[in-house]
Write a sequence for this structure.
């Protein structure tokens, strides 16, 4: 059993990106520039955005954090989006979700210029991914694919079972794993809340990607000997023994599942760090596109 | 065993559309108007476009056929596309594929205004379908979903196996059958040229959608008793006993498979007529959107 080490892999890729940025600067090309928009004071959101800004600094990107109170109106947010679309100094930007309930995620995300949509959430980018056209891939699925690729895991002809059909992980994973690409070319089965016989379906899987947000849902008896298991879940579970009062728990019962696997991601330190790296890779790509189009 | 009768269902829906058009006209709203662009003299393409134009007439739509010789350049075709995008009298239009080899399908289809893309081929419409947002669904997948719906076939929680991952049938089918909608909510498995154990996977299916273009690929021993089988294939197979010298053959060995099915589509007369009806439904929707936005 080998750990798919997201911390290590993300550090390696960050170094590669940092080197590229240095090369650009030595040629007089300006650094990639990511903007992040944060509305309200959601603790988790603040942590995530902070980590993204820090990652930008680590690789030498410019970053801009735009913060607005939870009272920000949809029109005010849309005005920010339009400014960011028009601003030639910004290569790409993200709107941190969730937004306050009085703002429509859909309307805001659809207003993002697809060429600056480094989260890969815009319908046009999702469609281009489905059609195997150049695009910004959604960050978590892209991170998983990169992790599989960096560990040289053969996916072609394998049966991949995706647990969950969310728009930001499960659904895009089914598209990425089925398409004619490397990694890809899997027989893909997607299961979700309406599915039956999930245990039996998982037992057929060469690769399991668990993204349903149910702590330790995947047990050892659902996993075939030698399977590759990728755990996207990250839920806070109450734990009195921890100073914080909780521990982070994946969708996979790691201790019992790991011994059966050829490869498995830990939680934390697996998919999580890869997600941020995907955002950096998308921003780099946006900056490259900008340079090309000039 | 019951036949999923595409001829009958498409006639019913055409009557419904024709009635709607008449209602519109009695209110002074102009008819929906579909344009079709045909480049070159491909026999099958001419037949398909002819059938689409005829279907428009049947339901009372206006239609315009724009024909250009195979020598038409990409720039000339793009100019037609831009004119159609700008023309307020055209609600929707299609570019009949395949295009001559010197023209990029991709470039032309991406130039189509998504709000007039009644074939549902534009990346933005594919992405909106994936995200379960209002959009034009690609015609064949939409026709299949409509057929299942009209026959009241329960899909929620069923295991649907899609054979083929083409951008116009297989891939969109996987998205439509998995999404949280009715029809939908299936556990979906997609198999393709790189897949293994296809026979065994098919035997698990409650619903099989065959779209690989291999005549009579699906045999009786691949089908579970009581399954629903939808046959998208339509290949010309040499047949000396026919005046034309060929017969139309689906992806399913109908004679041996049908007795095991609860429902099955014939070829021809199953999915084919539903595809044209989807195009009409999309054009009606485009015209409705036009009325709303005015």
């Amino acid at each position: 059993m080998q750990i798919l080490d997201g911390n290590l892999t993300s550090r390696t890729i960050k170094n590669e990106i940092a080197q590229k940025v240095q090369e650009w600067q030595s040629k007089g090309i300006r650094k990639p520039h990511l903007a992040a928009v944060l509305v309200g004071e959601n603790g988790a959101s603040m942590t995530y955005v902070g980590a993204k800004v820090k990652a930008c600094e680590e690789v030498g990107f410019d970053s801009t954090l735009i913060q607005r109170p939870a009272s920000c109106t949809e029109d005010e947010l849309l005005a920010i989006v339009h400014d960011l679309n028009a601003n030639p100094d910004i290569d790409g930007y993200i709107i941190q979700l969730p937004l306050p309930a009085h703002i429509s995620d859909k309307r805001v995300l659809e207003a993002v210029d697809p060429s600056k949509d480094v989260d890969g959430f815009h319908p046009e980018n999702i469609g281009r991914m489905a059609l195997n056209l150049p695009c910004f891939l959604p960050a978590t699925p892209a991170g998983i694919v990169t992790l599989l690729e960096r560990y040289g895991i053969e996916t072609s002809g394998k049966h991949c079972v995706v647990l969950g059909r969310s728009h930001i992980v499960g659904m895009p994973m089914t598209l990425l794993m089925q398409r004619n690409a490397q990694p890809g070319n899997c027989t893909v089965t997607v299961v979700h809340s309406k599915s039956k016989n999930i245990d039996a379906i998982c037992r057929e899987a060469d690769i399991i990607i668990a993204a349903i947000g149910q702590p330790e849902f995947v047990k050892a008896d659902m996993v075939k000997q030698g399977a590759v298991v990728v755990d996207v879940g990250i839920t806070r579970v109450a734990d009195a023994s921890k100073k914080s009062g909780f521990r982070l728990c994946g969708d996979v019962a790691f201790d019992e599942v790991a011994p059966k696997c050829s490869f498995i991601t830990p939680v934390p330190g697996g998919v999580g760090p890869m997600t941020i790296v995907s955002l950096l890779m998308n921003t780099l790509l946006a900056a490259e596109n900008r340079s090309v189009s000039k």
User: Anything to note?
Assistant: Residues 90 and 203 of chain B are 46 Å apart (CA to CA). The first strand of chain B starts at residue 2 and ends at 3. Chain B has two domains: 28-113, 139-272.
